[in-house]
């Protein structure tokens, strides 16, 4: 999967992702078809394949990676249908905080309800867990990830001017 993603990055570098494709309808249509096929493949796999099937270990995971790569290839271009759909504001909010959601979901699930009760969770308990994950991921984004990512000069993300100058001078 890493090699397939790296191949996509080589074939479709970000500096070539401009709106000019909007004027070339066959290419935009082809990207939309590739993306839709990837979405359909993943939906089928989510519904029909479980982690114990031999299909996964005899090419199924490669198919899943290729389908995901097809979706990404279509989604990264701003003029495609999938790119516009994934640009929907609530999905962007989730995407920005997805790492925090990934990091925090398991501790929250483990700490909120016992393992024996996990099979019999009510809808209310699931909503409480989901809300807790989203709130903690949002707080984590605001006060930890964002300052580090954007090097905000407040608190945890404070940058050192001297270290910036030294690292910038390395290699010419």
UniProtKB/TrEMBL annotation:
Keywords: Membrane, Transmembrane, Transmembrane helix. It comes from the Bacteria. One of its GO terms (cellular component) is membrane. The keyword Electron transport does not apply. The keyword Magnesium does not apply. InterPro entries: Acyltransferase_3 (IPR050879). The chain crosses the membrane at residues 29-49, 55-78, 99-117, 123-144. GO terms for biological process: lipopolysaccharide biosynthetic process. This is Acyltransferase family protein.
């Amino acid at each position: 999967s890493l090699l397939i993603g790296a191949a996509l990055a080589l074939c479709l570098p970000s500096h070539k992702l401009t709106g000019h494709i909007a004027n070339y309808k066959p290419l935009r249509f082809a990207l939309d078809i590739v993306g839709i096929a990837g979405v359909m493949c993943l939906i089928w796999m989510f519904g029909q394949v479980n982690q114990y099937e031999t299909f996964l270990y005899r090419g199924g995971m490669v198919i899943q990676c290729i389908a995901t790569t097809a979706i990404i290839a279509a989604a990264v271009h701003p003029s495609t249908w999938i790119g516009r759909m994934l640009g929907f504001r609530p999905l962007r909010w989730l995407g920005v905080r997805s790492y925090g959601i990934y990091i925090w979901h398991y501790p929250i699930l483990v700490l909120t309800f016992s393992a024996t009760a996990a099979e019999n969770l009510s809808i209310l308990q699931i909503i409480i867990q989901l809300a807790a994950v989203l709130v903690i991921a949002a707080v984590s984004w605001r006060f930890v990830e964002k300052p580090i990512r954007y090097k905000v000069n407040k608190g945890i993300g404070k940058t050192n001017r001297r270290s910036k100058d030294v690292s910038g001078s390395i290699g010419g």
